[in-house]
Amino acid sequence: MIFRDSCVTQVSPYSCTEESTAVPRQIFPAYIGTGNTVLSLDASGLQSLNHGVQEAFGAMPGSGDMYVVSHGIMSDILSADNAHPYGYFTWEFEREGEWVGPENLVSQAAVWKRRLYLDQGRAVTSMILLQNTRLELDVAGLLGTNRILMRVRLKSYHRSNQKSGKEISAKFRIRLHLATRSGEAACRSPQWDNMVLKASYPGRQDYEIRIGAYSSDAGKSFDGNCLTLEFTPQITDEWQEAAALFDFAADEQAIPSESSDFSRYCAGLFLDNWKKRRERYASLAEFHGLDDKQTFLYHNTLYLIYSCFSPSYGYPIGFPFYFPWCWRCSTFWDSTFLMDGIMRLGDSESSKKFLQFLYQSMNREGKPFSWMFAYDGRSTVDDDRDIAPLVMCAHAMTAIRHYEYFQDLETLRSCGYPILERVAQYAAEELFSRDEQGRWYLSIPVSNDVVEEQAREINQTFTLVWFLTIFRKCVEYGRLFGKEHPLLEEITGNFRIEQDETEYFHSQGIRAGEHNCASWIVFLLFPTEGMPFLDLEKLNRTRKKYSWEELYMDLQGCYQPWTEMMQGCSDLRRGDAEEGYRMFQLGLSHTFGPGYFSEIGPMQETVGLPPYISAYGTFLNYLASLYVTTDIWDGRLGVFTSLPAELSSKAFQVEGLRCNKGLTLSAARLPGRLEVKLAGRRPGLQVECLLPSGLDLSDAELYINGYPHCFEVIDRRRKILRFQLDLDGTAEIVIQ
């Protein structure tokens, strides 16, 4: 399985293999992360080449420079508001007077291979050096720590596989350069005590950093700018192995000093990391029935999220530190896609921590949230360009969905509802006015993004509908805490959406087709979930009149896979499974590897999505909605009803998916049989199911907890039936 413009030769659910006869420069990086500390790897297995994506795709100079960074450490050392680089790793090899390093690696190495193991948090890079030595460099990020583990393996190589019987002295050096790629020092006053480097990293504050470098097999040296571990193996016909551990928040934990103890210690770290990562996957929903590429993309999405971000510092759009300058490491509105996705998978802990981050970052006066803000809550966009208030909706929506999916009243009370109420009150008082007929409308000019020109879209439909959703949920939750919001009730009961008898408009006086840039009319049902405020028939007519290609692709002039999947989710909410699936496939056909420095890209295939969290979030949302549709209201629960005709005969299974009102669902669609398990409490729950393949409506029988149950057929052509139950605990549903 070879994907265009890449070195990928094999993809499995939890791994990706890349191979090349020569050392490739223009490939996408691999990422190793611990959940906070992250390094990107080029073809050298570390960062010796600084990869070649800039040259390959014309990105601006320096935009892809590779470093070791930690989430939550900010500096101006590269440009304003970026992730502060600790430095970068390179390696060198010497044997019998010959030398390989960053300068000549491409010419002195061959038969290159890299394998990324998602469930182990490891990347193993191998190559032949100087035509006589095999090198294998194994790098792992230890989840839940700030530790990077490296294992070097070397052996003699002969192209005819003959054994030399010799023992040859060699040197292998790993260097941590405490500098930028231009040579500027990354830290101040470094002090080295042969185990731990202490230094001050200047930035938004003075970060006092302790970097531990541990290895019982290496000599250690520090020249003020570079920390070097030097191994002196005897190269033989058998693998010779050495290990090193770098801790970027060095604690006082004892590290074994004896060689055998250290080797066992490192082996134990590898196994413990594997166990933790497997437990992380097992704690989240799992999908069965996807093809190999989609399964890998799903697991890779989770790998990147949990390896490269700490929710306590927000979710910057640049994913995952592939570009330290990316949009000033700011949290955008795009975080709502990612949060919705991982909440659907059952991760309440991350969404709770992110809500706490939002609450701490929220402005107590004036505008609750800037369009872009950094780890410390500071706005990173000029106020005159901050003209897209939908960012407030996005963060309020995260609070809404956390409560809807987990029924976590305490988090709603402590930070979710305060966010929601603050956003709703500010918007109602500052952004809305009455028209001549007494209807409420969004009266200030807004944009859907940060733009250079002045905003001019009055009563923009997408933003208006999203605020209506926020207002109604604020009223609903307010009653839980004995609060009334008469202004919000008045607005949601008497509002104006721009429209005529045939279609919804983009904004006041502007039809979608007349707008001078991409219109978001086609996205109206996701992420807004504004169903109660819209006429579905008119929305369908609007969608048929304006295709995504016309309103977005043609006007934007580029591919943006996250918008294609965003549209797919909106189409599924409209009940159009075929169009939703077409958009999903279109998005996947335009995917490209993490490392390209934009949310847009050429029409090429690799095995990654663009490195913007928007793409990963909408991908997760579409997968969840393909199996089970749900929303934040008291609407239907659709089990496999979003499957298109192309997939209707396939077997599918999902485990542990979160639904509205705190329900957890697992389901298996097998030939002639559908099994659904529901857990939670909800009276009068309406469930719709797509009949399993090979079963006719006239023969279908429904059982709930072993007892026959009645149902109604609501779509004979697609074979969809509906039934109602009072869920109180668990229910096992079988259709056969």
TrEMBL record:
InterPro entries given in the database record: 6-hairpin_glycosidase_sf, 6hp_glycosidase-like_sf
Source organism superkingdom: Bacteria
Any one GO BP annotation for this protein: carbohydrate metabolic process
Protein name per the record: Uncharacterized protein
